[in-house]
Amino acid sequence: MKRALTLLTALLTSSALTSATLAAGPTTLREAAGDRLLIGAAISMPQIEDPKQAELLTSQFNSIVCGNDFKPLYLHPKPDVFNFETADKYVAFAEAHGLKLIGHNLLWHSQAPAHLFQDESGKPLPREQGLANLQKHITTIVTHFKGKVIGWDVVNEGLADSEPYLRSTPALKSIGEDYIQKAFEFAHAADPDVELYYNDYNIEKPYKFPKALKLLKALKDAKVPITGVGIQLHCQLTEPKTPAELEAAIPQFAALGLKVMFTELDVDVLPRKASGADVTAKEQGANPYTAGLPADVAEAQGKYYASIFQVAMNHPGVVTRVTTWGTDDSTSWLNDWPVRGRTNYGMLFARDLSPKPAFADVMKVLTAK
Ligand code: XIL
Fold first, then answer.
1. Which of 43, 44, 66, 68 most suits a substitution to test ligand 1, by most atoms within 8 Å of the C-beta?
2. Which residue of 20, 54, 168, 190 is 20 to 30 Å from 2, comparing CA positions?
3. Can you name the residues that pair with 159 across neighbouring β-strands?
4. Domain layout of the chain by residue ranges
């Protein structure tokens, strides 16, 4: 009798525990997203070296991208020098914690070494030389990370904001318009299994969307091995049009057979003139929240974040990853762009690593039935 009672108590306790756990539901972003969506973060060394930061990263996120350390300037500083030491630390961290790693980026006009496409006087290299340099650059890097990264941002920000089509970059001036196609082909030849993305900002917006569609369609028509398109989404609280534009753009990208990813999501709460993410933008601007983020602003930011994640959830199987450009507010580039030295609050987690209202709002979207 006593044994039966003990057994019954044990059973009751364990089922109570189970239902309590079920009722509580997922407690982290990665759990809540399950296998529907990769939840990513852009990181730098502190996020893997500081135990508390690493704990936040590995509990909440299941994929990482390096905010800087995989960029051409650091991996390939001189014609015959490739430097993989720092980047390999992220590879080891990703492997140790079962995180998917995305490479950002193979080709960009910023944080890129001049030697790829310019001679010493700054003149564009002849096409054949530029192409040979591009091939060596991409082949060496993609080969090094073969089997270690799941995807590459092959070309970053190749579209112009004001000119009619492509951005005037050293690669364009040396090689010509097909530099983008060639970059994808070289990457695919070096690793046929790795996913290859075109990544840019504001391509969901009416002024840039047609240029993006034209480029992506041209690549698909030419049978270029492109897997997906990354929409950066450096958003501003004061510019709430993004969700509707995103909704409209996604099916059109998907119709080309592309996966869509939100690759650099942040929601700026401070005033700025720069739209999108032109890294050269420099401004003076107010810094009103040095003492803390007012509750109403935090709440509005939560709604904004939720609306973006809702768009992702509205396109299952098409939107495959949402990556925030940082983890907690202290790790965001928005503290220095486009105004240097502000106290900004672009992320889902506060400086003390606690979840902000935006976290709860995103969790609500991810766990909605
Ligand atoms: C940013 C980094 O976060 C900063 O630390 C760096 O000073 C400049 O670049 N679009 C991109 C990213 O594709 O590579 C940029 O990252 C942000 C805008």
1. 68
2. 20
3. 166
4. 2-23+34-367
